[in-house]
Amino acid sequence: MLLQSFVGTKRNEQRVYNWITERQLTVPVDHSYQPNRNPLKHFAEAVRDRNVGLGLLTNFMYLWAEMGVATFLTLDLTSKVGLPLSEAAVISGASGITGWMGQIVWGAISDKLGRKFCLRILTVGFTACILCCMFINSAATAWLILIIWGIFRNSPYAVLYAMLVDSAPKSAGASLGLLVGVGLGLSGALVTPVAGYFIQHFGWHWDYVMLAAVCLLTFIPMSLMRETSGDKASV
After folding, report:
1. Phi and psi for 33 in degrees, rounded to 5?
2. Confidence band (pLDDT; 50, 70, 90) for 106?
3. At what angle do helices 115-132 and 155-167 cross, to 10 degrees?
4. What percent of the chain has pLDDT over 70?
5. Deepest in the core among 31, 143, 170, 206, taking most CB within 10 A?
6. Of 219, 125, 119, 122, nearest to 162 (Cα)?
7. How many whole angstroms separate alpha carbon 133 and alpha carbon 138?
8. CA–CA separation, 120 and 39 (whole Å)
C-alpha cells in the first residue's frame, strides 16, 4: 500500500496509458467520458450492451468452476491424498506461480488474434485441468497439475475484461464492477454448498466433473458474443 502511494500517481498512470495507446493496445478506461452520477443508471447502461450481459454470465461460470475447485482443494489434498495440512495449504496455492503469466500472455495474444479465439483455448485448458484434479494422488502430481492450471485459471478474466472495455468503453468502470461484484460474489456464495453436496453424496470425482461441465458451458454465451479484436472484430 505504501509503494502504491508513491508509484500509482496520476502522472505514472498517464504514462502507462500513453504507452498502451502508442502500441494500439486496449486502454482500461476512457477518461474523456463523464459517467452518470447515478450508479444504477450507469450499470443499466453497461448491461444494455450484449457483450456485457453475456460476459457477466461467462464470468460467473468461470468463477463457479474456479471457486468450486479452490474452496475444497486443501481438504481434497488432506483427506484423499493424505498430505499434512501445512503442505496441502502451500500446494493449493501453486497455481498462483503461473497465474500472472497467463494473464499477461493471453491478454496480449487476444489483442492480436481475437478475444473469442483465446477464450475458446482457455476454456478447453481450464476444463482439462479441472478434470485432471481427479487424478491427483501425491504432492508431485498436485504441484504439476496446479501449476499448469495456473496458466489457464486467471487468464479468461483478463481477456473478458478487455472485451468489455472494447464493447462499452464509456461504461468500462461499471462493466468491470459488475463482473467482479456479480461474478465473484454470487458464484462464490452459490458454488460452495453445491460443490459440498456433490463431494458428500457423490464423491470428489463427480464434483470435478460437475465443475468441468459448468466451465464447458461458457461456450454457449461465448458463441453469442461479438468479437471486438483481431481480424474478425465486428465493425
Report:
1. -95, 130
2. confident
3. 160
4. 81
5. 170
6. 119
7. 11
8. 33
| Length of the chain counted residue by residue | 235
Cα distances (angstroms) measured from residue 211 to each of 19, 57, 97? 39, 15, 22
Which residues are CB-contacts of 170 (< 8 A; sequence separation ≥ 6)?
30, 33, 35, 45
Look at the block and give the residue holding cell 468479437: 227
Comparing 12-16, 88-92, 136-140, 221-225, which segment has the lowest mean pLDDT? 12-16
pLDDT digits (tens, 9 = 90+) for 124-183: 999 999 999 999 999 999 999 999 999 999 889 889 888 888 877 665 555 566 666 666
Give DSSP secondary structure letters for 108-142.
HHHHHH-HHHHHHHHHHHHHHHHHHGGG--SHHHH
pTM for the model stands at 0.80
Query: In sequence order, what DSSP letters do the residues of 71-104 get, joined into one string?
Result: HHHHHHHHHTS---HHHHHHHTTTHHHHHHHHHH
d(CA 10, CA 122): 34
Cα–Cα–Cα angle for 98, 185, 175, nearest 5°?
A: 80
